[in-house]
Amino acid sequence: MVLSDSDDEKWIYREHTAAKHEVYQKYLTPWTYKLSSWNDKLRVIDCFAGRGSYVRAEDCSGAQLEEISAPTELPGSPQIILDRLTKHSDKFEEAEAIFIEANEENYDELDENISETAGIADNISVNPIQGEFQDKVLDLVTTDGSDCPTLFFIDPFGFKSLDYDVVTEIGSTDQFEILITFMSRDINRFLENEDHRDALETTFGTPDFIDEVGDLDPENWEPLVEYYTDRIEGTGPEMTFEYLITEPETRQTVYYLVFGTNHPNGLKTMRDVMNICGTGNFGYAPKIPEHDRKQSGLSAFTTGLAATKEFLVNTFSQYRIEFRNMVEMCYKMRKYEDDVESDYRKAIQELESEGQVEVIRRASKTGGTGVGKGDLIDFRDDDDLEDIG
Ligand SMILES: C[S@@+](CC[C@H](N)C(=O)[O-])C[C@H]1O[C@@H](n2cnc3c(N)ncnc32)[C@H](O)[C@@H]1O
């Protein structure tokens, strides 16, 4: 039997819900902080907002709110958004929080939960809307690149409302970023089911998805999410990044969080956040050894730095490049390597001490060994070669 979206069974707070909320919470902080430094107005749209509360938790506890108080121990994404925006409300002039929810009962509960939530900063406007994401969202924004920075959380229960055209239109817009819950488990289950054909065609934006996705191994559904990210990168956001969420007790994938952005710094920030969330190696997957932070950290310690140095030398040997630009390019080229900015810094410091690069300290203290934003890294043997950035 198919459960209604307002059935209490669907509102149990599980470990994978907590894992998703961890990413939401941790990304909203740097996103708000960075974008408010050069924009007066920010907007967050929770496209599948839910009820703003859960009925009970199983083996985990609810998200902790710091700044606001909600009438529930188990708040949903709307309160997480309001809490993080409130925390940084001194940095922007105004922020808009829009919550779209289609189900009438869930919407009524959300509306009540939000009206009973106290402590929201005065410069945040709160706008709950009842309706379907795919019908409403494009009327709320301008997609010609002139609109304010907007972060979209796209978190359906299944996949039937994940409209490819709408997702790619917002995803391709400058200053807009999307974080999609891509329900791999359900999609995998129904991939060849006639009854779900139209919905899947809407999700992937093509009738050819079965042939194009290739062979799926029952143990490994990664090609499915990769096919989806390839599809949306074609017309939507320039860059994507995925985060795996499995069941806590098995290796079974529940969903991926798929992030899309048009800005290298957005990719870098989300990647850094996803690196510190969950169990490690860009995922919450307690039963998969590659996602065990302790094990992956150990291998990075023993072999990682040498590989990073080799990559840098091979990639940039003909260039002089600004440090932060270099890190952003590395994040794009080596999306799923463990390295974060501090690892690239360490690699450059070692290469400098070995005489393989020259560091021109325009920003860090001259005479020191620090390397940071603004400093130039010269990989060239010969001064006449190219500059990037
Ligand atoms: C996974 S839940 C959202 C949970 C919420 N984001 C959170 O983290 O607390 C999905 C919600 O989307 C609602 N919904 C289903 N179809 C929708 C649509 N087309 N547009 C907007 N909301 C929809 C459902 O009623 C449900 O409340």
Question: Strand order within the widest sheet?
Answer: 5-4-2-6-7-9-8-10
The second-level CATH architecture of the largest domain is 3-Layer(aba) Sandwich
**Rg result:** 22 Å
SSE arrangement, N to C: EHEEHEHEHEHEHHHHEEHEHEHHEEE
Number of domains: 2
TL;DR of this structure?
The protein has 389 residues and is α/β, with parallel strands linked by helices.
Secondary structure layout plus pairing:
Elements: E1 12-13, H1 15-36, E2 41-46, E3 56-57, H2 77-87, E4 94-101, H3 104-115, E5 124-130, H4 133-140, E6 150-154, H5 164-171, E7 176-182, H6 184-190, H7 197-204, H8 209-213, H9 222-235, E8 239-246, E9 253-261, H10 264-276, E10 283-284, H11 293-316, E11 319-322, H12 323-333, H13 341-353, E12 358-360, E13 376-378, E14 386-388
Parallel strand pairs: 1-3, 2-4, 2-6, 4-5, 6-7, 8-10, 11-14
Antiparallel strand pairs: 7-9, 8-9, 11-13, 12-13
Helix pairs in contact: 1-2, 1-10, 10-12, 11-13
This protein binds S-adenosylmethionine (SAM).
S-adenosylmethionine is lined by residues 5, 48-50, 76-77, 100-103, 106, 132-134, 155-157, 161.
